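Retro notes, item 3 of 5
We never archived the inputs for the magnesium ion complex last cycle. Fixing that now. Sequence and ligand:
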Amino acid sequence: MSFKIVEQAPARLNRSELAVPGSQPQLFEKAAKSAADVIFLDLEDAVAPDDKVQARKNVIQALHDINWGTKTLSVRINGLDTHFMYRDVVDVIEQGGERLDLIMIPKVGTPEDVYAVDMLVTQCEAAIGRKKRIGFEMIIETALGMQNVHAISAASKRNESLHFGVADYAASTKAKTTNIGGANPAYSILTDKDEKGGRDVHWGDMWHYAVARMVVAARANGLRPVDGPFGDFGDADGYKAAGGRANVLGCEGKWAIHPSQVGLANELFSPAEAEVKKAERIMEAMAQAQKEGKGAVSLDGRLIDLASIRQAEVLLAKARQISGAE
Ligand code: GLV
Ligand code: MG
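Structure as it came back at the time:
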Protein backbone atom coordinates (compact mmCIF):
# COMPACT_ATOMS: atom_id res chain seq x y z
CA MET A 1 0.00 0.00 0.00
CA SER A 2 1.01 3.58 -0.53
CA PHE A 3 1.93 5.67 2.49
CA LYS A 4 -0.89 8.00 1.40
CA ILE A 5 -4.19 7.06 3.00
CA VAL A 6 -7.20 7.76 0.76
CA GLU A 7 -9.99 9.22 2.86
CA GLN A 8 -13.34 7.69 1.95
CA ALA A 9 -16.53 9.69 1.35
CA PRO A 10 -19.37 8.96 3.80
CA ALA A 11 -20.63 5.43 3.15
CA ARG A 12 -24.01 5.80 1.46
CA LEU A 13 -25.87 3.26 -0.59
CA ASN A 14 -25.92 4.56 -4.16
CA ARG A 15 -27.19 1.58 -6.17
CA SER A 16 -30.09 3.43 -7.76
CA GLU A 17 -30.26 7.20 -8.21
CA LEU A 18 -33.70 8.34 -9.34
CA ALA A 19 -33.96 11.55 -11.36
CA VAL A 20 -37.11 13.60 -10.69
CA PRO A 21 -37.80 16.85 -12.57
CA GLY A 22 -38.29 19.77 -10.17
CA SER A 23 -41.02 21.06 -12.47
CA GLN A 24 -43.18 17.98 -11.83
CA PRO A 25 -44.11 18.06 -8.14
CA GLN A 26 -46.85 15.49 -8.74
CA LEU A 27 -44.04 12.90 -9.04
CA PHE A 28 -42.36 13.72 -5.71
CA GLU A 29 -44.50 11.57 -3.36
CA LYS A 30 -44.16 8.53 -5.59
CA ALA A 31 -40.40 9.00 -5.79
CA ALA A 32 -40.19 9.29 -2.00
CA LYS A 33 -41.99 5.94 -1.69
CA SER A 34 -39.83 4.22 -4.31
CA ALA A 35 -36.98 1.85 -3.51
CA ALA A 36 -34.35 4.29 -4.82
CA ASP A 37 -31.29 4.73 -2.61
CA VAL A 38 -30.76 8.30 -3.80
CA ILE A 39 -33.16 10.81 -5.33
CA PHE A 40 -32.09 13.90 -7.16
CA LEU A 41 -34.59 16.66 -7.71
CA ASP A 42 -33.61 18.26 -10.96
CA LEU A 43 -33.41 21.98 -11.64
CA GLU A 44 -31.22 21.54 -14.71
CA ASP A 45 -31.86 19.80 -18.02
CA ALA A 46 -35.26 18.25 -17.30
CA VAL A 47 -36.64 21.74 -16.61
CA ALA A 48 -37.38 24.24 -19.40
CA PRO A 49 -35.92 27.76 -18.92
CA ASP A 50 -39.34 29.31 -18.32
CA ASP A 51 -40.06 26.80 -15.55
CA LYS A 52 -36.77 27.19 -13.66
CA VAL A 53 -38.02 29.64 -11.04
CA GLN A 54 -41.15 27.66 -10.24
CA ALA A 55 -39.19 24.39 -10.17
CA ARG A 56 -36.84 25.88 -7.58
CA LYS A 57 -39.84 26.85 -5.44
CA ASN A 58 -41.32 23.35 -5.82
CA VAL A 59 -38.08 21.77 -4.69
CA ILE A 60 -37.75 24.01 -1.64
CA GLN A 61 -41.30 23.21 -0.62
CA ALA A 62 -40.76 19.49 -1.15
CA LEU A 63 -37.65 19.54 1.05
CA HIS A 64 -39.96 20.60 3.89
CA ASP A 65 -43.24 18.88 3.09
CA ILE A 66 -42.42 15.44 1.71
CA ASN A 67 -41.37 12.58 3.95
CA TRP A 68 -38.24 11.33 2.17
CA GLY A 69 -37.60 8.66 4.80
CA THR A 70 -34.00 7.55 5.04
CA LYS A 71 -33.20 8.26 1.40
CA THR A 72 -30.22 10.30 0.40
CA LEU A 73 -31.62 13.47 -1.12
CA SER A 74 -29.90 15.63 -3.69
CA VAL A 75 -30.73 18.64 -5.86
CA ARG A 76 -29.18 19.06 -9.29
CA ILE A 77 -28.39 22.75 -9.73
CA ASN A 78 -27.95 24.50 -13.05
CA GLY A 79 -24.54 24.80 -14.67
CA LEU A 80 -21.99 27.42 -13.68
CA ASP A 81 -22.38 29.03 -17.10
CA THR A 82 -26.02 29.96 -16.44
CA HIS A 83 -27.54 32.78 -14.39
CA PHE A 84 -29.71 30.27 -12.50
CA MET A 85 -26.99 28.49 -10.61
CA TYR A 86 -26.14 30.96 -7.82
CA ARG A 87 -29.78 31.36 -6.83
CA ASP A 88 -30.31 27.58 -6.97
CA VAL A 89 -27.60 27.21 -4.34
CA VAL A 90 -28.55 30.20 -2.21
CA ASP A 91 -32.31 29.66 -2.15
CA VAL A 92 -32.23 25.88 -1.79
CA ILE A 93 -29.82 25.99 1.14
CA GLU A 94 -31.16 29.08 2.86
CA GLN A 95 -34.83 28.19 2.48
CA GLY A 96 -34.75 24.39 2.21
CA GLY A 97 -34.07 23.45 5.85
CA GLU A 98 -31.75 20.67 6.99
CA ARG A 99 -33.09 17.71 4.99
CA LEU A 100 -30.95 18.06 1.86
CA ASP A 101 -27.86 15.81 1.83
CA LEU A 102 -26.14 16.56 -1.47
CA ILE A 103 -25.88 19.04 -4.30
CA MET A 104 -25.30 17.65 -7.76
CA ILE A 105 -23.10 19.85 -9.94
CA PRO A 106 -23.60 19.27 -13.68
CA LYS A 107 -21.03 19.70 -16.43
CA VAL A 108 -18.09 20.18 -14.09
CA GLY A 109 -15.12 21.14 -16.24
CA THR A 110 -12.33 22.17 -13.88
CA PRO A 111 -11.47 21.86 -10.17
CA GLU A 112 -12.12 25.61 -9.91
CA ASP A 113 -15.78 24.96 -10.78
CA VAL A 114 -16.04 22.80 -7.67
CA TYR A 115 -14.10 25.37 -5.64
CA ALA A 116 -16.54 28.09 -6.68
CA VAL A 117 -19.61 26.07 -5.64
CA ASP A 118 -17.87 25.08 -2.40
CA MET A 119 -17.28 28.76 -1.60
CA LEU A 120 -20.93 29.61 -2.19
CA VAL A 121 -22.27 26.62 -0.27
CA THR A 122 -19.91 27.32 2.63
CA GLN A 123 -21.15 30.90 2.90
CA CYS A 124 -24.81 29.84 2.77
CA GLU A 125 -24.32 27.16 5.42
CA ALA A 126 -22.49 29.59 7.70
CA ALA A 127 -25.06 32.36 7.19
CA ILE A 128 -27.95 30.19 8.40
CA GLY A 129 -25.97 28.10 10.89
CA ARG A 130 -26.77 24.88 9.03
CA LYS A 131 -25.79 21.86 11.10
CA LYS A 132 -25.43 19.18 8.42
CA ARG A 133 -22.68 19.69 5.83
CA ILE A 134 -23.80 19.34 2.24
CA GLY A 135 -21.81 16.94 0.05
CA PHE A 136 -21.19 17.14 -3.69
CA GLU A 137 -22.05 14.80 -6.54
CA MET A 138 -20.34 15.82 -9.76
CA ILE A 139 -21.39 14.85 -13.25
CA ILE A 140 -18.52 14.18 -15.61
CA GLU A 141 -20.18 14.87 -18.93
CA THR A 142 -17.91 17.04 -21.02
CA ALA A 143 -14.57 16.47 -22.69
CA LEU A 144 -13.11 19.13 -20.38
CA GLY A 145 -14.48 17.42 -17.29
CA MET A 146 -13.11 14.08 -18.42
CA GLN A 147 -9.71 15.64 -19.11
CA ASN A 148 -9.65 17.10 -15.58
CA VAL A 149 -11.48 14.33 -13.78
CA HIS A 150 -8.62 13.53 -11.39
CA ALA A 151 -8.16 17.13 -10.24
CA ILE A 152 -11.95 17.58 -10.01
CA SER A 153 -12.21 14.53 -7.75
CA ALA A 154 -9.74 16.03 -5.30
CA ALA A 155 -11.09 19.59 -5.45
CA SER A 156 -13.23 19.67 -2.29
CA LYS A 157 -13.71 17.87 1.00
CA ARG A 158 -17.41 17.90 0.16
CA ASN A 159 -16.93 15.60 -2.84
CA GLU A 160 -18.76 12.29 -2.52
CA SER A 161 -19.39 10.88 -5.97
CA LEU A 162 -18.72 11.11 -9.70
CA HIS A 163 -21.42 10.39 -12.28
CA PHE A 164 -20.97 9.59 -15.94
CA GLY A 165 -23.38 11.84 -17.84
CA VAL A 166 -23.37 9.95 -21.08
CA ALA A 167 -25.86 12.15 -22.95
CA ASP A 168 -23.99 15.42 -22.56
CA TYR A 169 -20.67 13.59 -22.86
CA ALA A 170 -21.71 12.37 -26.30
CA ALA A 171 -22.71 15.91 -27.27
CA SER A 172 -19.44 17.33 -25.97
CA THR A 173 -17.16 14.77 -27.59
CA LYS A 174 -19.28 14.64 -30.75
CA ALA A 175 -19.65 10.89 -30.30
CA LYS A 176 -22.16 9.17 -32.56
CA THR A 177 -24.87 7.61 -30.42
CA THR A 178 -28.09 5.78 -30.96
CA ASN A 179 -30.03 6.22 -27.71
CA ILE A 180 -28.77 7.67 -24.41
CA GLY A 181 -26.24 5.27 -22.90
CA GLY A 182 -26.87 2.62 -25.52
CA ALA A 183 -24.48 0.86 -27.87
CA ASN A 184 -23.77 1.78 -31.48
CA PRO A 185 -23.43 -1.11 -33.96
CA ALA A 186 -20.88 0.96 -35.88
CA TYR A 187 -18.55 0.56 -32.89
CA SER A 188 -17.78 -3.06 -33.63
CA ILE A 189 -15.06 -5.33 -34.88
CA LEU A 190 -15.17 -8.05 -37.52
CA THR A 191 -13.56 -11.38 -36.80
CA ASP A 192 -11.21 -12.85 -39.40
CA LYS A 193 -12.85 -15.06 -42.01
CA ASP A 194 -13.51 -18.64 -40.95
CA GLU A 195 -12.98 -21.63 -43.34
CA LYS A 196 -16.24 -20.85 -45.11
CA GLY A 197 -15.43 -17.14 -45.41
CA GLY A 198 -17.91 -16.18 -42.69
CA ARG A 199 -17.17 -13.37 -40.29
CA ASP A 200 -18.75 -12.47 -36.96
CA VAL A 201 -19.54 -8.96 -35.82
CA HIS A 202 -18.72 -8.18 -32.19
CA TRP A 203 -20.24 -5.04 -30.81
CA GLY A 204 -17.92 -3.02 -28.60
CA ASP A 205 -18.72 -0.79 -25.64
CA MET A 206 -18.10 2.75 -26.83
CA TRP A 207 -18.34 4.06 -23.23
CA HIS A 208 -15.71 1.77 -21.78
CA TYR A 209 -12.86 4.27 -21.63
CA ALA A 210 -14.98 7.02 -20.11
CA VAL A 211 -16.51 4.86 -17.38
CA ALA A 212 -13.20 3.17 -16.56
CA ARG A 213 -11.41 6.53 -16.35
CA MET A 214 -14.11 7.93 -14.08
CA VAL A 215 -13.93 4.87 -11.83
CA VAL A 216 -10.17 5.27 -11.36
CA ALA A 217 -10.45 8.99 -10.56
CA ALA A 218 -13.29 8.37 -8.12
CA ARG A 219 -11.67 5.45 -6.31
CA ALA A 220 -8.26 7.15 -6.12
CA ASN A 221 -9.98 9.95 -4.21
CA GLY A 222 -12.35 7.88 -2.06
CA LEU A 223 -15.48 8.82 -4.05
CA ARG A 224 -18.34 6.68 -5.35
CA PRO A 225 -18.38 6.20 -9.14
CA VAL A 226 -21.94 6.05 -10.48
CA ASP A 227 -23.06 5.27 -14.02
CA GLY A 228 -25.50 7.73 -15.58
CA PRO A 229 -28.69 7.46 -17.60
CA PHE A 230 -30.01 4.84 -19.99
CA GLY A 231 -32.63 6.53 -22.11
CA ASP A 232 -34.71 3.66 -23.50
CA PHE A 233 -36.70 2.86 -20.37
CA GLY A 234 -38.70 0.22 -22.25
CA ASP A 235 -35.51 -1.81 -22.74
CA ALA A 236 -34.83 -3.49 -19.39
CA ASP A 237 -32.31 -5.88 -20.92
CA GLY A 238 -30.36 -3.01 -22.46
CA TYR A 239 -30.35 -1.25 -19.07
CA LYS A 240 -29.14 -4.40 -17.33
CA ALA A 241 -26.35 -4.89 -19.87
CA ALA A 242 -25.13 -1.28 -19.50
CA GLY A 243 -25.42 -1.33 -15.71
CA GLY A 244 -23.82 -4.76 -15.55
CA ARG A 245 -20.74 -3.48 -17.38
CA ALA A 246 -20.50 -0.47 -15.08
CA ASN A 247 -20.82 -2.76 -12.05
CA VAL A 248 -18.05 -5.02 -13.32
CA LEU A 249 -15.76 -2.00 -13.75
CA GLY A 250 -16.35 -0.85 -10.17
CA CYS A 251 -19.32 1.54 -10.22
CA GLU A 252 -21.55 1.66 -7.13
CA GLY A 253 -24.79 2.23 -8.99
CA LYS A 254 -26.65 3.72 -11.91
CA TRP A 255 -29.18 6.43 -12.55
CA ALA A 256 -32.84 5.65 -13.03
CA ILE A 257 -34.54 8.12 -15.33
CA HIS A 258 -37.79 6.17 -14.90
CA PRO A 259 -39.13 4.43 -11.77
CA SER A 260 -39.04 1.06 -13.59
CA GLN A 261 -35.23 1.25 -13.61
CA VAL A 262 -34.90 1.54 -9.81
CA GLY A 263 -35.42 -2.15 -9.06
CA LEU A 264 -33.12 -3.15 -11.91
CA ALA A 265 -30.32 -0.98 -10.49
CA ASN A 266 -30.81 -2.20 -6.93
CA GLU A 267 -30.53 -5.78 -8.09
CA LEU A 268 -27.56 -5.20 -10.38
CA PHE A 269 -25.52 -3.43 -7.72
CA SER A 270 -26.30 -5.77 -4.80
CA PRO A 271 -23.96 -8.73 -4.42
CA ALA A 272 -25.72 -12.01 -5.28
CA GLU A 273 -26.18 -14.63 -2.55
CA ALA A 274 -23.65 -16.93 -4.26
CA GLU A 275 -21.03 -14.16 -4.35
CA VAL A 276 -21.50 -13.51 -0.62
CA LYS A 277 -21.11 -17.23 0.16
CA LYS A 278 -17.97 -17.40 -1.96
CA ALA A 279 -16.51 -14.36 -0.22
CA GLU A 280 -17.18 -15.95 3.16
CA ARG A 281 -15.42 -19.13 2.05
CA ILE A 282 -12.44 -17.08 0.85
CA MET A 283 -12.21 -15.38 4.23
CA GLU A 284 -12.32 -18.79 5.98
CA ALA A 285 -9.75 -20.34 3.65
CA MET A 286 -7.38 -17.40 4.07
CA ALA A 287 -7.77 -17.42 7.87
CA GLN A 288 -6.77 -21.07 7.81
CA ALA A 289 -3.85 -20.32 5.44
CA GLN A 290 -2.59 -17.59 7.74
CA LYS A 291 -2.69 -19.98 10.70
CA GLU A 292 -0.52 -22.31 8.68
CA GLY A 293 1.85 -19.45 7.76
CA LYS A 294 0.89 -19.44 4.05
CA GLY A 295 0.20 -16.29 1.99
CA ALA A 296 -1.70 -18.05 -0.77
CA VAL A 297 -3.77 -21.22 -1.05
CA SER A 298 -6.11 -22.77 -3.54
CA LEU A 299 -9.88 -22.81 -3.28
CA ASP A 300 -11.98 -24.75 -5.81
CA GLY A 301 -8.85 -25.23 -7.89
CA ARG A 302 -8.05 -21.50 -8.09
CA LEU A 303 -5.34 -19.45 -6.44
CA ILE A 304 -6.39 -17.05 -3.74
CA ASP A 305 -4.07 -14.70 -1.91
CA LEU A 306 -4.13 -11.57 0.24
CA ALA A 307 -5.62 -9.54 -2.63
CA SER A 308 -8.51 -12.04 -2.67
CA ILE A 309 -9.17 -11.22 0.99
CA ARG A 310 -9.38 -7.53 0.17
CA GLN A 311 -11.87 -8.18 -2.61
CA ALA A 312 -13.92 -10.47 -0.37
CA GLU A 313 -13.91 -7.85 2.39
CA VAL A 314 -15.21 -5.19 -0.01
CA LEU A 315 -18.02 -7.47 -1.13
CA LEU A 316 -19.00 -8.49 2.40
CA ALA A 317 -18.93 -4.86 3.57
CA LYS A 318 -21.32 -3.96 0.74
CA ALA A 319 -23.64 -6.87 1.64
CA ARG A 320 -23.69 -5.72 5.30
CA GLN A 321 -24.39 -2.13 4.23
CA ILE A 322 -27.35 -3.28 2.15
CA SER A 323 -28.83 -5.56 4.80
CA GLY A 324 -28.44 -2.77 7.37
CA ALA A 325 -30.45 -0.43 5.15
CA GLU A 326 -33.27 -2.78 4.18
C1 GLV B 1 -26.77 13.52 -17.70
O1 GLV B 1 -26.90 14.62 -17.24
C2 GLV B 1 -26.35 13.28 -19.02
O2 GLV B 1 -26.10 14.27 -19.73
O3 GLV B 1 -26.26 12.11 -19.41
MG1 MG C 1 -26.33 16.14 -18.64
